[in-house]
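Workshop exercise sheet. Pairs work together: one partner reads the sequence aloud, the other fills in the structure field after running the prediction. Swap roles for the next sheet.
Pair: D.N. / O.F.
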Amino acid sequence: MIRLNIHEAKTHLSRYLARLARGESILLCKRNIPIAEIRPIGAHRKNKRPVGLAKGKFKVPAEFYGPLPDDVLDSFHGEVR
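Structure field:
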């Protein structure tokens, strides 16, 4: 992992882009105290993700579509019972 202070990152980030592309991560620090991590994102998918891989493996129970209990509804509005 590459460890950089903010000033170094601002000044020389382009130097580190190739290393990021190869899979390395950057630990961004402020006065040598870690505050963030910069890491590469995964490779872009070339194919669309398949849909319906779990079809038939579970069934949603009828209760799922019923009304929620009052205490759960209240919690959506910040109310506690």
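Discussion prompt: Strands lie at 2-5, 26-30, 33-38. What would you look at next?
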